[in-house]
Write a structure and sequence with these properties.
alpha+beta, 5-stranded antiparallel sheet, 4-stranded antiparallel sheet, 4 helices, about 15% helix
Length: about 170
C-alpha cells in the first residue's frame, strides 16, 4: 500500500471451489469482529476490458492465497474516505440501506444502550428494563445474526420484512 502498486491477488472465497485472480489497488487494512480485512478498488487487468464494479472489494486477509506486487502504480483516490464508507450504518457489508427498530430487554438492553451501532441511532427507554433502538443498517445477514445473538431479549419491531425473515 505504501508503494501504491497495483497487486495481483489470488483469492479463495468461502463458498467457491476455485480461487480467482484479481488486480487491486489496496487502500486500507483493518480489523472488525475478530477478522482482518483488506479494502481495495479493482484495477484494470492487462489485456481485459474494465467494468466498474458495483462495490469496492472487501477481502478477508486469511483467504488471500497469493499476493504479487506488480510494476504498475496507482494514485491514492482523493475521493476515498474510509469512515464515510464504513461508519454510516450497522453492518460491514454495504448493500441497500434500511432503517430498523428493535426492542431489547434485560441484560441486552443495557449492553445495546452503552454502544454505538450506527451514527444515526436513537435509543428510547421503555419502562424499567427495556429500550427501543432505531438505526440504519446495510446488511440483512449481519443484522439478523446480531439480533439472534440476543435470543429472547430482542424483538424486531420494523421493518416488517425483517420481522418475517426472523420468524
Amino acid at each position: 500500500m505504501d508503494a501504491k502498486k497495483i497487486c495481483r491477488i489470488t483469492y479463495q472465497a468461502i463458498m467457491q471451489k476455485k480461487a480467482k485472480t484479481y488486480h487491486v489497488k489496496p487502500l486500507k487494512i483493518f480489523s472488525y469482529r475478530d477478522t482482518i480485512y483488506l479494502h481495495a478498488r479493482l484495477a484494470k487487468e492487462p489485456g481485459k476490458a474494465y467494468r466498474e464494479p458495483k462495490f469496492d472489494p472487501l477481502l478477508t486477509i486469511h483467504r488471500l492465497k497469493k499476493v504479487e506486487m506488480t510494476e504498475r502504480c496507482f494514485e491514492y483516490p482523493t475521493d476515498y474516505d474510509f469512515n464515510e464508507v464504513f461508519d454510516r450504518s450497522f453492518g460491514l457489508v454495504k448493500e441497500d440501506y434500511f432503517e430498523v427498530e428493535i426492542e431489547f430487554q434485560g441484560w441486552a438492553a443495557d449492553y445495546v444502550a452503552e454502544r454505538t451501532w450506527s451514527p444515526d441511532q436513537k435509543i428510547t427507554k421503555v419502562g424499567d428494563d427495556k429500550i427501543q433502538i432505531t438505526f440504519s443498517a446495510s446488511s440483512e445477514v449481519e443484522l439478523i445474526a446480531w439480533i439472534l445473538s440476543f435470543g429472547d431479549e430482542a424483538k424486531v419491531l420494523q421493518p416488517a420484512w425483517v420481522v418475517t425473515e426472523l420468524r
